[in-house]
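Extended Data, record CarboxypepD_reg-like domain-containing protein
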Amino acid sequence: MKKLFYLFLLLFSVFSFGQRINGKVFSLDKTPLPGANIFLDGTTISTTSDGDGNFVIEYDPGAKNILVISFMGFENQYITDLGLKKDLVIYMDVAKNTLNEIVVNSKKDIFTRQQRLKIFREYFIGETRNSDKVTIENEDDIHFKYDKQNFVLTAYSDKPIVIINPFLGYKISYGLQKFEVTFNKLSIYSRDVVKNCYSGLSHFEEIDNSDLILKRREEAFRGSQINFFRNLANGTWGRDQFLLSKNNSGVFAGDCFKISKQDHLTKVEVINQKNDTNDKRFVASYDILFRNREESNVVFDVNTFYIYKYGNNSNIEDIIFTGKIAEEKIGDMLPLNYGIKLEVQ
């Protein structure tokens, strides 16, 4: 059985050709910064600068990842288009502590920190089996603000949130850029949540790769958003994969999307669905069934978007999932480069 499992992983792995990029990291006064962390957002791909601030990192031009350069006490730097860069020279500015502007007055707080942390974990880490054992090493670095007029809880952190996921064998460093939970009244309970969102930049470090962990990762991948977008790009549909339906009737993916390949990108044109109610709020909406049992729904509020090589895409905020897929948050998250072997040319 173990041999069959490794054979499956071998067949699943996709080989992708990458390139190397060289860089140097300095402070504004041109002092080299040794030990700076350099990583591709959402992946396990990373390196550190040497004693002279030099670094080399491998990347895939078709993956469209953001390159993040971080150093303790300095503002992060982001490079969004590596395809145009051959050599990088990075100058870093001293960080400003934005949390100093947040005034905390416990007498005016109507909800406890414990209550805020609970709702944060629910909508950031998740509540699935995978997320059960997840811990946050630096919870004290997370700060909250509750807007009592608009019923919105926001979370902030000037430091990356360090997440340990023993179930999937990863340590995740997550630079939180946005976290909001909106309630329908003055509340801190999930039953009153009407909207939630979070975003940020993440780096994955493997801390366990035992046979059991590898099996868990493969199970976490199957049925995930990244699995859905990779399959959509490749035209992979079926009873053991994803199936689309509308009003309890199966639909043919070719009638829903027009797919075309453009260099390293996959262009997806969402075909406007016929809607008897003349609802113009979105372009199309479909029910999704994975392996004939996991039910979700996806709403496309965009006519055209692009899927990159790893399964990330250009318009993630315009594509909204509900149901099973939406339940999977940080506790179920895998690196974007999961299952893809990078070979440098």
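Summary. The first strand starts at residue 14 and ends at 27.
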